[in-house]
């Protein structure tokens, strides 16, 4: 049986970033600039991705605008028929850099915000003036006519302002907005006590999203990502391991998801050593959790196994110490007590953030 | 744009176009058509493919309907229903806008 090809490629061009968000999805050990892939290699990777059936490329990081070759890469994506999306913090965006990207054929921008208010936003980013720069970036993008998605990461210290975030997205003229609760691995796990909301906070965010969806139907799309600690079942992480997504790290490691570098005892395939197709179909990192054969109980006999694929492997590893365990957020998982304990032992006052930067993990 | 109401449905005299950042694209690997949109790709069914290939920001929907009624030798009322349903569904998903 041949494996259907991936739909999307997340191209993490660099781990460098002027911001230091304590929930950053990058690994705790950040790749240094000196080991980043060069322009020619990224071009070749996109050629291979388009040929194997990838439809969209998401340029991400770190801050992808820290790479001066970004417009070249966007132009190349366009020339091979890949839909191009830029996932950016916006702090390096100005009229010149935006014009270069638009000219290169960039299709869409996803701009991240830390909050609806400047002070708490800059405190999360650990960068003075970041929020103001983002507002300016949003205005430039909308004025240019490029479709814009705003992304807000939600946690206990900003959850109450979800209605204000939705209003801000509407006022800025965003076409989409993502209200995405923090996911607790990597830096997010390290900062869990400072970030995990309580059940009431979660309910208020859900309510705000439901109301805004009715009000803004047909004008703004709202995507909501729940904090899976409060869910009954886990999320189908990445649409199933090795089924829809390819992630390439700044150094060229090919991964099923951005946290997969935490998986122990397996070789990480690299674009330097094999073709993307070969890696996708044959690399042990991709085949080890693809489908349902690897599953232990309770997943092995669970009717939900092809809906959520047993949840997130990296979360199982981070919490239960075993990448092949049922995701502990599942109520049927033997390690579910770990998630309940994280909720009940959450301190009343959030501790200080451990900021995301080189050498701070 | 802020404060504007959800636009009324498109009718035969409207001229649709693709919103910036959306397009119809043939996938040679899966041998099928997709609608590419911000951070998602929708599978386009046979009707969508026929209609969207005629969406160019210049043709009114009435012309699209006439063309398809002739091409498939089908009653105009049936085609009209299919086209308007599809176009308004895609407008609600911000894929198509008025030219
Ligand atoms: S989450 Fe924050 S620190 Fe991490 S890459 Fe994005 S903007 Fe930079
Ligand atoms: S037992 Fe496994 S497959 Fe079933 S819901 Fe839980 S994590 Fe998903």
UniProtKB/TrEMBL annotation, chain A:
Query: What catalytic activity does the UniProt entry give for this protein?
Result: [PQQ precursor protein] + S-adenosyl-L-methionine = E-Y cross-linked-[PQQ precursor protein] + 5'-deoxyadenosine + L-methionine + H(+)
Task: Give the pathway annotation.
Answer: Cofactor biosynthesis; pyrroloquinoline quinone biosynthesis
Keyword list (alphabetical) reads: 4Fe-4S, Iron, Iron-sulfur, Metal-binding, Oxidoreductase, PQQ biosynthesis, S-adenosyl-L-methionine
Q: What is its EC number?
A: 1.21.98.4
Question: Has keyword Iron?
Answer: yes
Where in this chain does the record put each Radical SAM core domain?
A: 3-223
Positions binding [4Fe-4S] cluster in this chain are: 17, 21, 24
Cofactor(s) this protein requires? [4Fe-4S] cluster
Q: Which InterPro entries match?
A: 4Fe4S-binding_SPASM_dom (IPR023885), Aldolase_TIM (IPR013785), Elp3/MiaA/NifB-like_rSAM (IPR006638), MoaA_NifB_PqqE_Fe-S-bd_CS (IPR000385), PQQ_synth_PqqE_bac (IPR011843), PqqE-like (IPR017200), Radical_SAM_PqqE_MftC-like (IPR050377), rSAM (IPR007197)
Q: How is the cofactor bound?
A: Binds 1 [4Fe-4S] cluster. The cluster is coordinated with 3 cysteines and an exchangeable S-adenosyl-L-methionine.
Indicate whether rRNA processing appears among the record's keywords.
no
Known partners and oligomeric status: Interacts with PqqD. The interaction is necessary for activity of PqqE.
- Provide the function of this protein: Catalyzes the cross-linking of a glutamate residue and a tyrosine residue in the PqqA protein as part of the biosynthesis of pyrroloquinoline quinone (PQQ).
Q: Which family does it belong to?
A: Belongs to the radical SAM superfamily. PqqE family.
Q: Which PANTHER family match?
A: PQQA PEPTIDE CYCLASE, RADICAL SAM DOMAIN PROTEIN
| Descriptive protein name | PqqA peptide cyclase
């Amino acid at each position: 049986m041949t494996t259907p090809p991936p739909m999307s490629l997340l191209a993490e061009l660099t781990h460098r970033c002027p911001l230091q968000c304590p929930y950053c999805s990058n690994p705790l050990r950040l790749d240094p600039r000196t080991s980043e892939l060069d322009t020619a290699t990224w071009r070749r990777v996109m050629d291979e991705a388009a040929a194997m059936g990838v439809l969209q490329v998401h340029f991400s990081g770190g801050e992808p605008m820290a790479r001066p070759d970004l417009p070249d890469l966007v132009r190349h994506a366009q020339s091979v028929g890949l839909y191009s999306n830029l996932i950016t913090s916006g702090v390096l965006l100005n009229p010149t850099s935006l014009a270069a990207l638009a000219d290169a054929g960039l299709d869409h921008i996803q701009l991240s915000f830390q909050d609806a208010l400047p002070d708490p936003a800059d405190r999360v980013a650990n960068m003075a003036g970041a929020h103001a720069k983002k507002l300016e970036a949003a205005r430039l993008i909308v004025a240019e006519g490029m479709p814009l998605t705003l992304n807000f990461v939600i946690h206990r210290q900003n959850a109450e302002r979800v209605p204000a975030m939705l209003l801000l997205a509407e006022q800025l003229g965003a076409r989409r907005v993502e209200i995405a609760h923090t996911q607790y691995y990597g830096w997010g796990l390290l900062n869990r006590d400072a970030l995990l909301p309580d059940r009431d906070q979660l309910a208020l965010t859900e309510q705000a999203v439901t109301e805004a969806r009715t009000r803004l139907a047909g004008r703004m799309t709202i995507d909501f990502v729940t904090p899976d600690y409060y869910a009954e079942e886990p999320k189908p992480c990445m649409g199933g391991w090795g089924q829809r997504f390819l992630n390439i790290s700044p150094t060229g490691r090919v991964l099923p998801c951005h946290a997969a570098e935490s998986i122990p005892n397996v070789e990480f395939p690299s674009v330097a050593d094999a073709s993307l197709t070969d890696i996708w179909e044959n690399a042990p990192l991709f085949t080890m959790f693809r489908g349902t054969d690897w599953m232990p109980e309770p997943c092995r006999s669970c009717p939900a196994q092809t809906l959520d694929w047993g949840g997130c492997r990296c979360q199982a590893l981070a919490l239960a110490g075993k990448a092949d365990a049922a995701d502990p957020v599942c109520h049927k998982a033997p390690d579910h007590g770990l998630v309940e304990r994280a909720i009940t032992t959450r301190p009343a006052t959030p501790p200080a953030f451990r900021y995301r930067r080189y050498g701070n993990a | 744009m802020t404060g504007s109401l959800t636009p009324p449905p498109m009718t035969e005299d409207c001229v649709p176009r693709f919103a910036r950042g959306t397009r119809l694209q043939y996938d040679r690997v899966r041998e099928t058509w997709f609608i590419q949109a911000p951070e998602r790709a929708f599978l386009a069914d046979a009707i969508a493919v026929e209609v969207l290939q005629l969406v160019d920001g210049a043709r009114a929907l009435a012309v699209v309907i006439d063309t398809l009624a002739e091409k498939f030798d089908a009653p105009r009322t049936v085609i009209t229903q299919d086209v308007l349903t599809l176009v308004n569904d895609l407008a609600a998903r911000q894929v198509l806008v008025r030219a």
